[in-house]
Design goal:
mainly alpha, 4 helices, flat, binds zinc ion
Length: about 80
Amino acid sequence: MDERRDPEPAAGSTQHVLAGVGQLSPVQEAWAAYVAHATHCAGCRDVDRRCEQAEQLYRAWRELSSAALRRLGAERA
Ligand SMILES: [Zn+2]
């Protein structure tokens, strides 16, 4: 008798989710990087400390999102 195997994952389950990560827009990737850092960084959780890395990630997100908004505005003009 065949040994029991885990069922095949449904089409588009885990692989689909992982594949989607690479399809985030640069703005979404920058935000995801900031959130991923901030949720795991002791410095970010301490209100009495400044976290230089978080500030850099946040600035990068701000710059990317305002550049994207400028492009949108230019396309509509
Ligand atoms: Zn931090």
